């Protein structure tokens, strides 16, 4: 029985050593010696794990003194706590998706749970200036968890605040986000008449322009406000489209048509608070402007006109998006969407049907958009 208790106590201390890296951080010099000392000194008749560990950290280790004297200078301690905080945040992310991530529609990294060293540095500075006594590692971890729970997941305003403060890590993530939107928008533009080298130059220049505009706007224009991540995404999409158009025109004569997006002479900050009414200025007799408006709506399933435009033809719209956004061939669409293999009896027939539906849905979307715009104009008379 005594041996079983000793084994249990050693196991508890071993797990503390592994979890909190006490020897590595310098909390104790020799783990085995600390264990022997603890087992020799601790004689409480009523054993509880909490009481056992409290005694270990207060009487044997002197953990509070270690934190008080080492927290401002011990780099190992700082990075260990950064790791622990990251793991805690990861568990939060696994339990609940951030609304900001859903609104931004960015899957490569979670911006809502983005927790770089820059942010942790702010928390750690508060930790170093805190006069609270930390008797155990649990109390230290709870200090950081409290700040994390109060701030994460990030809202759009918190995210933008970090951008306005020019936190480099957040701008790096935003840089990647802009690149993804540029790629999507460029696929919409269908640069079929340009060589790949020129297309790449257009995308790179548009990305650079957009990134510079965003930085300038967010750091100089205090009136710029976004109610949600969706609003911010629409704003970025709009800038990307304008920049792509400007770069595209360098390689396109005025007589050459641009298949999907028109060129609009607008400034990046000319956007309406009401997205649904922002299309009233579009000329329905200009096929390029109509195509532009449709493509913007299809880029964002949260757009107020998205459902009106696509209801009842979702399957055909999916074909269009696969073709335009993902760049899939008709053969690939049929394979992926209908699970048909080349050589099967219905494959060629389905490819032909898919090609026709792609052409029809473009015409249907144009007709629907024109009708929607006419209805809006009646409401605004």
Compile the SSE list and pairings.
Elements: H1 2-20, H2 22-25, H3 31-41, H4 49-61, H5 63-70, H6 75-95, H7 99-104, H8 117-129, H9 137-151, H10 156-164, H11 168-189, H12 196-220, H13 229-249, H14 287-299, H15 306-310, H16 314-324, H17 330-338, H18 347-379
Helix pairs in contact: 6-9, 11-12, 11-13, 12-13, 14-18, 16-18, 17-18
Protein architecture, described:
This protein has 381 residues and is an all-alpha fold. It has four domains: 1-61; 75-154, no CATH class; 161-252, no CATH class; 287-379. It contains 18 helices and no strands. Helix 12 (196-220) crosses helix 13 and helix 17 (330-338) packs across helix 18. The radius of gyration is 29 Å and the shape is elongated. It starts with a helix and ends with a helix.
Q: Structural class given helices, strands, pairing?
A: mainly alpha
Q: In percent terms, what proportion of residues is strand?
A: under 5%
Give the averaged pLDDT, no decimals. Answer: 84
Radius of gyration: 29 Å
C-alpha termini separation: 90 Å
Helix content: 55-70%
One letter per element, helices H and strands E, the order comes to HHHHHHHHHHHHHHHHHH
> Tally the helices: what do you get?
18
Coarse morphology: elongated
In total, the number of domains comes to 4
Task: Please summarize the sheet with the most strands.
Answer: none
Number of strands: 0
Poorly predicted spans: 253-280
């Amino acid at each position: 029985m005594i041996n079983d208790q000793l084994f249990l106590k050693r196991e508890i201390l071993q797990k503390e050593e592994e979890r909190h890296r006490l020897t590595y951080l310098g909390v104790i010099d020799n783990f085995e010696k600390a264990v022997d000392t603890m087992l020799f000194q601790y004689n409480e008749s009523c054993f509880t794990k909490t009481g056992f560990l409290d005694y270990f950290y207060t009487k044997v280790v002197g953990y509070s003194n270690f934190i008080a004297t080492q927290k401002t200078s011990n780099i190992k301690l700082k990075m260990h706590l950064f790791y622990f905080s990251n793991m805690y945040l990861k568990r939060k992310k696994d339990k609940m998706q951030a609304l900001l991530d859903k609104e931004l529609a960015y899957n490569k990294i979670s911006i809502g749970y983005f927790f770089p060293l820059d942010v942790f540095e702010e928390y750690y500075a508060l930790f170093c200036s805190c006069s609270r006594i930390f008797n155990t590692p649990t109390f230290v971890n709870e200090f950081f968890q409290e700040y994390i729970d109060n701030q994460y997941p990030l809202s759009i305003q918190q995210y933008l605040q970090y951008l306005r403060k020019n936190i480099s890590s957040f701008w790096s993530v935003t840089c990647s986000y802009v690149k993804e939107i540029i790629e999507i928008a460029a696929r919409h533009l269908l640069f079929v008449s340009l060589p790949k080298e020129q297309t790449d130059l257009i995308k790179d220049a548009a990305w650079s322009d957009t990134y510079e505009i965003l930085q300038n706007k967010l750091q100089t224009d205090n009136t710029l406000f976004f109610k949600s991540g969706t609003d911010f995404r629409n704003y970025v999409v709009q800038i990307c489209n304008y920049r792509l158009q400007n770069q595209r025109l360098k390689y396109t004569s005025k007589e050459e048509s641009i298949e999907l997006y028109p060129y609009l002479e607008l400034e990046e900050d000319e956007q309406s608070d009401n997205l649904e009414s922002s299309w009233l200025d579009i000329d329905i007799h200009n096929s390029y402007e109509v195509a532009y408006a449709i493509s913007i709506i299809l880029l964002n399933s949260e757009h107020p006109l998205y459902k009106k435009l696509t209801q009842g033809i979702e399957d055909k719209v999916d074909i269009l998006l696969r073709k335009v956004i993902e760049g899939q061939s008709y053969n690939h669409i049929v394979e992926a969407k209908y699970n048909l293999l080349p050589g099967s009896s219905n494959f060629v027939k389905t490819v032909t049907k898919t090609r026709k539906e792609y052409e029809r849905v473009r015409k249907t979307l144009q007709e629907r958009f024109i009708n929607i715009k006419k209805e809006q104009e009646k409401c605004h008379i």
